[in-house]
Amino acid sequence: MNYLIITLSILPIVLIAIYYYKKDTLKEPKKLLRKLFFSGMLSGVLVIIISYITILFFPTYASIENANMFKIFIYSFIFVALIEEVCKWLMIYKISYHHRDFDQLYDIILYSVLVGLGFACLENLLYTTSSNNIWVAVFRGITAIPAHACFQTFMGYYLTLAKFKKDKQKKYKNLSLIIPVLLHGTYDFLLLSGNIVLVCSFFIFIVFLFIITIIKVKKIINIDKNNLNLDNNK
Hints:
Low-confidence stretches: none
Strand content: under 5%
Helix content: over 70%
Mean pLDDT: 92
Oligomer: single chain
Shape: globular
């Protein structure tokens, strides 16, 4: 067992979890956060099961072996992004959307990211230990793991709008799934395309994704802080 690879696989997850946790102004119950993280891992198991089924019924599109650009597109957006994001969304919604501790805008962003990191943890360990390659662990540590946190930040962002803007609840619930699927699908399509221009665009996309995610997090945190200050001054 290569302990360096395992460490490199888990360390980014721990660091991102700490980053998001420290941003929370009113700390969430750790028991709930642990539950969300492990539910993310469970969603990864669910994805594996569904993926095996899709390969049996849709062998042409559920694999990128000898695939052209169109098949890679379908594979990326449907058989990877849609399936994975739906499984994560179900865990987040079922466990946390109606939870009594979801009382700040930022809360469900943290909840969502913990689910995303749980998923990323299982996925990353499977990838890195099977490849037994340190550089795979390093590359995924700076791309795939932060990307999952970004996808779930957007998921949480729109779920919090759905929770607190009742008049547009349906719209924001839909966006909480649609936007992460589009971002995830774009991520995979650019990376898997094999086209030099698209692969180079992948790195531009990653930087753009990280920047927009940080902006979204700061926006929600500032609103929560302002609301907290108002409550303290009453």
